[in-house]
Amino acid sequence: MNETPPHKILCEWDRRYVWHPFTQMKQYEEIEPLIVERAEGAFLYDTKGNQYLDGVSSLWVNVHGHRRPEIDQAIREQLDRVAHSTLLGIAGVPSILLAKRLVDLAPPGLDHVFYSDNGATAVEVALKMAYQYWQQKSPPEPERNIFLSFTNAYHGDTIGSVSVGGIDLFHAVYRPLLFRVIHAPYPYCYRCPLNREYPSCEMACLGEVEKIISEHSAHLAGVIIEPLVQGAAGMITAPKGFLRIVRELCDKYRTLLIADEVATGFGKTGTMFACEQEKVSPDLLTLAKGLTGGYLPLAATLATEEIYRAFYADYREQKTFFHGHSYTGNALGCAAALASLDIFEREKTLDSLKGRIEYLADLLESIQSLPHVGDIRQCGIMVGIEMVRDKRTKEPYPWEEAIGVKVTREARRRGVVIRPLGNVMIFMPPLCINDEQLEYLVTVTKESIQSVCGD
Q1: Model confidence over 173-205: pLDDT tens digits?
Q2: Is residue 450 within 8 Å of 385, Cβ to Cβ?
Q3: Which of 41, 125, 280, 312 has the most CB atoms within 10 Å of its CB?
Q4: Distances (CA, A) of 238 to 65, 72, 230
Q5: Strand order in 256-260's β-sheet?
Q6: In 3-state terms, what secondary structure has residue 275?
Q7: CA separation, residue 343 to residues 69, 118, 130, 209, 339 (Å)
């Protein structure tokens, strides 16, 4: 193995050769990059030896902490067997075992697992399955060929997943490439699109959702939703019961419900899957991010027996689901995922998480009183802190002031990695984080906001 170049050289090569995702490179080049060399538990270590609390679990993927011996060992043992073999017409041991585990854990009725590589591709799979289902079911309903998604939605960065997205900042530039989608209002209670107040509004937005679904019901192939929390929109949390009623509306108007749990799955809302909290079983469920415990790219789309049967036919009928990826069901990724699920079971991770979620809520109260914090949203360990110029009027900071970026830099200077979504500070730490580390995370976030925005 070649010796790692000195930090200074790595910085130079990083700026020269690497194009970072969701990063304005001109701004990025203004500061010295944080170059991660190793990690352990809830902490990252850079090439200069500095330690940072991983407040975003390496973009919401690292579930049990870095360098978990059980997952490390599972990958090593799988390497001694086979690193990868195709699933196109051939099976693999880890992918079979993982599919069985996922079906056992998922909401009732989701009986079939289709593997892919990441969250966006899992959504692409779900959209194509839903569309093709209506073309091939008996009797077919080919007129059902459009989807409904929600304002502020984020489902990934491929063309199909962008089509069902709802964040103009990310998606507007690609609009000429996208297919038609109907959008319904999502309950962003702090900035209600209907200018109502919760809970006196009695979720008036649901009336709008039903109106839109009913108007397009004859042509609706499916409704796609991020259950309980819209992550990339700024951790926008839905009122209790919203998801349940959306499920009921899909049943009423005979359309499919696609639950995108790429961000919310694997404990982040306090249950294994967010859908569990409202006893909702979707027709299609997408999983990725935390699936392998943050080790390797792997995704899955779970489908009902009814959907599966629309593709189950004689070869001559050409009803095959003609979709696949080179690394579908990768053996190393599946081995890592199985080891991660073993940790959940052995350590009773979800049971032990309840107290930390409550403690986190208590800690966040100290931030709510800051004059430039307008709203704090929490679901499980998923947290969004919305900063405003004027707390009374909810006036946001102008985009060009890059307030979120400045707070992020200040937190990094203090030893914590968090990430902004515009003026919303986000953190979603690994589930292994302890109370002392939670306190450190919240304290540094508070101090960083005060330093940038003032007291």
Answers
A1: 999 999 999 999 999 999 998 888 888 898 999
A2: no
A3: 125
A4: 28, 37, 8
A5: 110-116, 299-304, 284-287, 256-260, 220-225, 146-150, 181-184
A6: helix
A7: 11, 22, 33, 39, 6
Nearest to 255 by CA among 225, 287, 300: 225
The tokens for 299 are 């995704």
Distance of CA 58 to the CA centre of its chain: 12
Instruction: Return contacts of 198-201, CB within 8 angstroms, 24+ apart.
Output: 198/239, 199/239
What letters, b where the CB count within 10 A reaches 16 and e where it falls short, cover 87-126? beeeebebbeebbebbeebbbeebebbbbbbbbbbbbbbb
Pick the CATH number of 34-67+350-453 from 3.30.1330.60, 3.90.1150.10, 3.40.140.10, 3.40.50.300: 3.90.1150.10
**Angstrom distance (rounded) from CA 360 to CA 156:** 28
- In terms of Cβ atoms closer than 10 Å to its own Cβ (0-12, 13-18, 19+), residue 231 is buried
Rounded distance between C-alpha atoms, residue 66 and residue 419, angstroms: 19
Q: How is the beta sheet containing 43-46 ordered, strand by strand?
A: 36-40, 43-46, 51-54, 416-417
- 331-347 helix and 93-105 helix, angle to the nearest 10 degrees: 40
**How far apart are alpha carbons 414 and 204 in whole angstroms?**
43
pTM, two decimals, is 0.97
The number of residues in the chain equals 455
pLDDT of residue 255: 98
Domain limits, the chain: 34-67+350-453, 72-347
Q: Where are the beta strands (DSSP E) in 192-283?
A: 220-225, 229-230, 236-237, 256-260
For the domain spanning 72-347, the CATH number is 3.40.640.10
Query: Which helix (H) or strand (E) element contains residue 184?
Result: strand 181-184
Q: Cα separation of 1 and 253, whole Å?
A: 60
What's the rounded Cα separation, in Å, for the pair 305 and 279? 19
Predicted pLDDT of residue 1: 54
Cβ atoms 343, 68 nearer than 8 A: yes
DSSP 5: P
Q: 363: Cβ–Cβ under 8 A, 6 or more apart, which residues?
A: 438, 439, 442
- 362: exposed, middle or buried (C-beta count within 10 Å: 0-12, 13-18, 19+)? exposed
Amino acid at 186: Y
What's 66's DSSP letter? Answer: B
